Amino acid sequence: MKLDIEGLTVEYGQVAAVHGLNLTVGHGELVALVGPSGCGKTTTLGFITGFIRPKAGRVLFDGVDVTALAPQRRGIGYVFQDYAIYPHMTVRENIRFPLDAAKKERKQAERDVDEIAGLMGVGNLLARRPHQLSGGQRQRVALARALVKKPVILLLDEPLSNLDAHLRVEVRAEIRRLQLDLKMTTVFVTHDQSEAMAIADRVAVMSDGNIVALTAPATLYTRPPSLFSARFIGSPQINIWATDGPDEALARRVIQPLVRDGGAGLLVGVRPEDVEIGTGELEAVVTLTEPLGRDFLVHLTVGPSSIRVLVPAEEGQHLKLDDNVRMRIEPSRLHLFDAATGRRVEIDAAGARRLDESAQGDGGLAS
Amino acid sequence: MVRGAFGRATPWLLLALPLLLLFLFLLLPYLLTFFYSTTGATIGRLFNVKEVGLKNFQAVFSEDAPSFISVVAVTAIFTAGTLFGSLALGTGLALALHTVSAGVRSALLAIYLIPWVIAAVIIGYTWRLIYDPAIGLANSVLGMVGIGPLDWLTEQGIALAALVVANVWAGYGIVLLVVSGALANVPPNIILAGQVDGASYARIVRRVILPAIRPTFLLAALVALVSGLNTFDLIYAMTRGGPLYHTETMALEMYRLTALKGNVGQGAAVTVILFTISLALAVAYVIIWRRETRKWS
Amino acid sequence: MELVRLSGLQRLARAAAVGLALAFAVLPLLWVVSIAVRPGTQAVYPISILPTSLTLDNITGVLFASNGIGLGPYRNAAFYGLSSAVITAVASTLGGYALARYSMRSGEALLIVILALSFLPSASRIVPLFILTSATGLYGTAQAVILAYAAGSIPLGIWLMAGTFRQIPVRLEQAARIDGAGTVLTMRRVVLPLAIPGILVVATLAFIDGWNSFSLPLILIPKAAAQPYTVALQRYIQEIGYGINWPLLSAGSLVALLPVLSVFAILQRRLVRVGGLGGAIRG
Fold it and tell me: Within an 8 Å CB–CB cutoff, is residue C226 touching chain A?
């Protein structure tokens, strides 16, 4: 089942606003909607389900306009952030509820419940009440309930955020495996960029009611199409310097090999792991070192500008406060953005600027 | 966010039945009363009534047996007595229970709350029995210490006080319940902090606990005030306003003028006065309640 | 753990206060019981604190003897109270749901007006309801009494139900829709089962109010056969002199107490929990 959202516009009210959003999710594809709270992710889900009435916009399932269809007629599977398990029903009754609502024959319904419960690993919990379940078990019950009626589309709203950190990684992998097996068209909403990167075929980065980047996870990381997505994806966060302003000296110096015109009106970004320490002509001073396990995050200053660098632990542990170090940034590792619009800028062989076309909308400095 | 089957009209369709009932049997009667208070209606003549302006109010004010001044005074004394009695007993008891364990407290609360669910008229009969000169508990107890016997409900000086005691018995449970609820919501840490600072229990009550429950206390006071003002069943069951109108309150006067004297216009006039005072207190209640819920939400 | 550490003297004072208050709360009712279960010959001056022999004659007398009020008045009170409880539960559930789930611009104002209405006690309704029922020809009918009771209980009922529904997450309703359930199924299988405790409390409070009502039936029901026990018991009181038949009146009161006290005992915990709100509103 292919999902299309066309021109979704929701005005600010009880929910976050969305401005003219377009999104297509292909059959069997998993698209992650990621962005900070208030960016309109949940509004978009609400529109797909039919709970939110938009000012404008259409939603199509396999090309059929379902915008006017009531939520209960859309055949969607949905896992809520807090799971929304019916507290007064047993696990079995919870999972069977969608089949009861569809007036499915009782024996067949029970067989379906047993089957999906087995698949989700909750077959031994069917007689229990929700309050007797752990967070992870509830999560599985919610997933089983969403999947038992073989939905046309699966929507997952922050399904992992109520789980412990170690469980989160485990369940994430399970969901992805299941989704691939069932070839289920899925929209996965999260505020956690690493979760989105890990699970999705494509990641849609949302900001201020629109999608500002929509690409495969790897591309999103290596060639972020907008300043906003560059900042949002990746931890520790990317270093950004403007060619005009306090960081001018450093910014212009690192892009010198690339551009001919001096680089006015550009923002220069480099990820902390893309900076080399120990060699090179830039001189920096260590202001803080933070051990992160495998790596050290080292804070440095170059003149008035500051920079975060990720270095392997064996190197990082020798660095001390106020050490003078040399460092070097490979020009091909730089990300350039237009300071006015925030869109990615590519420099061609002749040294001329070209705006990147894969970015949608604008994610300028304001965001 | 929830889509109703009938769009925007859905909540009003749901509200139709309750609002209709409230309008017909709560609001409309009051509106009619305002209208009838300016007419010469009697029990036998409720239609084609004559407009008399404010004559009913004048008649009520110039009534001499009982005089309106006396009715107002009795109402005021009865209400004030009920108010202070139930507030003092309810709050004092709540404070005493506040220091016992939660299990014991809820068991005791259940017993203290029994009068809350008993019909006011049955409470009236119960206390009338207690005060009975021949077989009442009151005289039996006083007799043991060599006092009495007293004619509780027929002695002019005692009857009103006896009624107040009965009404406090009927009403202190609610004050206790409400104040207990508020006390349970006082953060234990500020009480513990007070003790760490070396304050005595009496001082903690005065300086920490009572200020924290002040809004609830005010609301409880307003409830006690309005219910004291409007007490009818209990007084009717115990004295019917006697002896010689010494316990005749506005609520009883309203009934007497309408049902016994048959003068619907005058009864309505007294109702309008009582209603207006109650409404003013209700509005005060809502204002305080709103201010406090805003403060805490 | 005790919140406050009290001195021995303070403990003594607390025990005395709690004990005296218990005596004050319970002794009047025990006295009614003691008069109700002793033979009439022992209910005379000088009275003994404890009856020397027990009897059920007074109770059977009230209910079945020729000088009793019979079962009818209790049946009437139960009928009025239960009818009012049903109407109140239905109306409060509808209204409470509307106010809890739909954000209407006038919704909050409405809730506040309802709160103010619920604050007006029944005594001030006696004359207005007499006028209304007389003017509309409903005077003396059961419908008038029942609807008058219900109208008195609905404001608090709506308040409690709005609170009940607010505690049921909207998400559960949305989940039911997603699961394919329409309005009826969502209500029947998800919302109402979760609201049952609240509905039960609202119905119970309405029943108690109706069962206990005196002034409204006193003025609205002239026919003796339709009167509830609260009004019927007056026959044992002769205002002139001391002609009160205390054994029968006490027995009649005792019978009247049994239903409310048993309901209270069963639902005590729930009633006490809402009592904080309910009590603050009920006059």
Answer: no
**Which residue, among C92, C119, C158, C271, would best test binding to B if mutated, counting the most B CBs under 10 Å from its CB?**
C119
Q: Which residue of B has its CA nearest to C256?
A: B122
The answer to whether B2 faces chain A, any CB pair under 8 Å, is yes
Q: Does C104 touch chain A (CB under 8 A)?
A: no
The answer regarding whether domain B21-296 maps to CATH 1.10.3720.10 reads yes
Q: Residues B231-265: pLDDT tens digits?
A: 999 999 998 887 888 899 989 998 888 888 888 88
Distance separating alpha carbons of residues C188 and A100, to the nearest angstrom: 13
Residue of chain C minimizing CA distance to B104 = C18
Touching partners of B (3+ C-beta pairs < 8 Å) = A, C
C151 shares its domain with C268? yes
Chain C residues closer than 8 Å to B96 by CB:
14, 17-18
A249 with A282, same domain: the answer is yes
Q: Which of residues 52-71 of B touch C (CB under 8 A)?
A: none
- C107 in any annotated domain: yes
Paired with A157 in beta bridges are: A189
CB contact under 8 A, C3 and B223: no
Side-chain-facing half-sphere of A178: CA atoms under 13 Å: 20
Q: Looking at residue A366, what is its pLDDT?
A: 34
Q: Is the pLDDT of residue C43 over 50?
A: yes
For residue A5, what are the β-bridge partners? A23, A59
Residue C78: which pLDDT band, with cuts at 50, 70 and 90?
very high
Structural domain includes residue C2: no
Where does the pLDDT of residue B133 fall: very low under 50, low under 70, confident under 90, or very high at 90 and above?
A: confident
**pLDDT per residue over A145-167, tens digit each?**
999 999 999 999 998 888 888 88
Please indicate if any CB of chain B lies within 8 Å of the CB of A15: yes
In a domain, A360, yes or no: no
C50, C124, C158, C229, best to mutate vs chain B, most B CBs in 10 Å: C124
pLDDT at residue C179 above 90?
yes
In a domain, A177, yes or no: yes
Residues of B numbered 223-262 whose beta carbons fall under 8 angstroms of chain C's beta carbons: which are they? 223, 226-227, 229-233, 236-237, 240, 251, 254-255, 258-259
Q: Which structural domain, as residue segments, surrounds residue A257?
A: 228-355
What is the nearest CA distance from C274 to chain A, expressed in angstroms?
21
Peptide bond into A236 cis (omega under 30): yes
Contact A283, A302 (CB under 8 A): yes
Write out the DSSP string of C138-199: -TT-HHHHHHHHHHHHHHHHHHHHHHHHHTS-HHHHHHHHHTT--HHHIIIIIIHHHHHHHH
> How close, in Å, is residue C225 to chain B by CA atoms?
19
Partner residues linked to A214 by β-bridges = A204
Co-location of A73 and A208 in the same domain: yes
Question: What is the number of domains present in chain A?
Answer: 2
Interchain CB contacts (distance < 8 Å): A and B: 11
Size of interface A-C (CB pairs under 8 A): 66
Burial A161-188 (b: 16+ CB within 10 A, else e): ebbeeeebeebbeebbebbeeeebbbbb
Judge if A70 and A199 occupy the same domain.
yes
How many angstroms separate the CA atoms of B10 and B7, rounded? Answer: 6
The C-alpha of C147 sits at a distance from chain B's nearest C-alpha, in angstroms, of 7
* Assigned domain for C25 exists: yes
Q: Find all residues with CB under 8 Å of C241, minimum gap 6, and list them.
A: none
The answer as to whether C49 is a domain residue is yes
What domain range includes position C17?
Answer: 8-64
| Distance in angstroms (rounded) separating the CA atoms of residues A170 and A157 | 17
Residue A362 lies in a domain: no
Q: Do C155 and B26 touch (CB under 8 A)?
A: yes
**Residue A37 covered by a domain:** yes
Q: Within this chain, do residues A76 and A99 fall inside the same structural domain, yes or no?
A: yes
Give chain A's length. Answer: 367
